[in-house]
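User: Sequence in, structure out. Go.
Assistant: Echoing your sequence, followed by the structure tokens.
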Amino acid sequence: MKAAVLRQVNTPMEIEEVAISKPGPREVLVRTVAAGVCHSDMHFYNGTYPGQFPLVLGHESAGVVEQVGADVHYVKPGDHVITCLSVFCGHCEFCLTGHMSLCQEPELNRDAEDEPRLGTPEARVGQFASLGSFAEYMLVHEHAVAKIRKDMPLDRAALIGCGVTTGVGAVIHTADVEAGSTVAVIGCGGIGLSCINGAYIAGAARVIAVDMVPSKLELARKFGATDVINAGDGDAVEQVRELTGGGVHYSFEAIGLKQTAEQAFKMLRAGGTATVIGMIPPGDMVSIHGPELLSEKTLQGSFMGSNRFRVDMPRYVDLYLQGRLHLDDLVSSRIKLADVNDALLALETGEVARSVIMFDE
């Protein structure tokens, strides 16, 4: 199969022919139809987060089941699925206490002595997030897919695989936003826009979008923002506090920077909760003013929207088809696999919500 292979940090991926194994007892072979190009891929492409090479990036995807292993009963060939990097075992402490997105059981991958899923025993190729969706096919554990209805467009479904689940889930699962509350979202990329959309669906009375790109702030209004703040026009924290008369009940950081994480905490009212969604670089320390903790403010993280993705993703599909989840405007462009390097670099400009690789076009 053809796949975009990353062999070195900050080096363009080459489209290569990569060998792929057959499904094992609990594995599923998925024909990739669409794959979003996400900032998380960029973090490993540019070395902000360490990775093992060679590696097939990509994790936000949807496709069609081609083959299943002997013990797979959840899906069958022909089923439409969304993949998710929150692969779960189903029996560890995290899974049994409802925190499936935190499962890290090694049994979900093949053992080192087994034939690799990608490549050969002499030249193994890794799968980013146990998926590797910048490829024509994905061979994954059955607990890495969610089955969805077939009338859902797969280019939009792919976005649910990461950005939407992360943004909406941070609102409804991690922070448990109350109806009628006030919300601020820092960063209006794909995840931030999904967070805004989630706050709107949750019934927040006021949703404030914060960014420095006017076009993204305008787009935020389509996703449910009631107010927008251009952080380039002055202190964003002061602007939020002035708009709300003292701060918001909930804030969300969707960029991944120390500075914006600290801003998210500062723009809270007493008793408020700041949720950091962005991937802050390793080694960066987030500082908060100690006395502010006496006002019962909370600073917390969120990984993949604290999801239960086999339950959440079919629900998000329904919300999209009902017109309540806005996915169409998240797609900035539809591209071919050969354009993946340009799509990654476009993320650095801050102008792009999502480029989606289409494999059938």
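User: And one key feature?
Assistant: The two ends are 16 Å apart (CA to CA).
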